Each structure stands twice: as structure tokens, then as C-alpha cells.
Amino acid sequence: MPGSYGIKCSPHFAMGMVMLIQVGDIPQADFPADLPRRAKDRFTSILARETE
Ligand SMILES: [Cu+2]
Questions:
Q1: What are the Blue (type 1) copper domain coordinates in residue numbering (predicted)?
Q2: 11 or 50, which is more confident
Q3: Enclosing H/E stretch for 48
Q4: What residues does the ion ligand 1 have nearby, CB within 5 Å?
């Protein structure tokens, strides 16, 4: 299914060790409310790079 899928490294999730798998052309992301700030920052950075 098209979308953006976040993957986390469980022991380092709070430090922002995440990756993003994008399926399809549209980078969409719905962040969970309890997403750690560093992980959210990393996802936001990845998505910004992807749309340049
Ligand atoms: Cu890690």
C-alpha cells in the first residue's frame, strides 16, 4: 500500500535512530503523539530531503 513507513531501532529509538521506507510517489507521514522528539526530527529531516 502506498505511504511512508517508519522503522525504529528499539534500543536507540529515543535517540532518533529510525529509517523511512517510502512506497509510491507521495511522502505522507502521520506521526504518533508519543513519538520521541529526536525520532520525529529525524523523520522530518528525511522527508524534507526526499521532496527536494
Ligand atoms: Cu540503534
A1: 2-23
A2: 11
A3: helix 37-51
A4: 9, 12, 17
